[in-house]
Amino acid sequence: MQAAVASVLEQGWDATTMAHVRREAGVSNGSLFHHFPQRGDLAAAVIATALHDHQHVLLTALARSPTALDGVTGVVEAHLGWIGRNRELARMLLGTGTDQLRAQAEQGALAASRAFFDQLKAWLRDHGWTGEPSFPVLHALWIGSAQEYARAWLAAPDRYDMPNAAPALAAGAWAALAPLLESQP
């Protein structure tokens, strides 16, 4: 799997071939195709790996956050940092529609994502969120602007300065969420 992820990071998903992954992994055709009968199976495994890594980075940011302010802003900055370090994986994840991503993802990755979002909801409740607005709305307020900026950066990195935009995007997320969380940062 590491060979596939490395290949995507190096050259992007579109240029990643089964033959390249097989060579990089040092395995036979039979072995590769036993584990990944089709390219879509390999895509599902790469997506699962990328989601796991991304979610781990965000949960680590939350765990290091003593206040709601630190958690909200830390997640935005961690999200953008992960995208900056994993440009091609991020392009793969953000360039795929949600329904298509779910269809490609392995069942284990989907279950892990549900658990991840449950952890986010629990953290939010621990910091004063009452359940209103709904989590999808809260999530869009929290990460939506950063996500859209990241998409623009992925499409035209020379026109966008993501590292320098991260603090402003994090502050915007806090401005949106602060009234919905405990009154003290």
Query: How many separate structural domains?
Result: 1
Q: Count of helical segments?
A: 10
Which structural class is indicated by helix and strand composition?
A: mainly alpha
* Integer average pLDDT: 86
> What portion of the residues fall into strands of 2 or more residues?
under 5%
Largest sheet report: none
Regions with pLDDT < 50 over 5+ consecutive residues?
none
> What top-tier CATH class fits best?
Mainly Alpha
CATH superfamily: Tetracycline Repressor, domain 2
Measured on Cα atoms, how large is the radius of gyration?
18 Å
CATH fold description: Tetracycline Repressor, domain 2
Q: What's the count of strands? A: 0
Shape: globular
The run of helices and strands is: HHHHHHHHHH
Helix content: over 70%
CATH architecture: Orthogonal Bundle
End-to-end CA span = 41 Å
Keywords:
single chain; 185 residues; mainly alpha; Tetracycline Repressor, domain 2
Q: How does this structure look, described?
A:
Helix content is 76%, strand content 0%. It is an all-alpha fold and 185 residues long. It has one domain (40-180): Tetracycline Repressor, domain 2, CATH 1.10.357.10. Helix 4 (39-63) packs across helix 6. It is globular. The mean pLDDT is 86.
